[in-house]
Amino acid sequence: MMMMWGRRMALGIAGTMGLASSALAGEWQWGCMGPLGADHIVFQRTELVVIGGKAPPGPLDDYVLRDGLGKLREGTKAPNILATYEAEDVNSGLDAKLTFVAPGSGSTLTLTEQASRTISRRQALIAHCRDEERARVRKTYLVERTGAAPVTTTLTCLEYTLSTRGGRQCR
Question: Is the pLDDT of residue 41 over 70?
Answer without folding.
Answer: yes
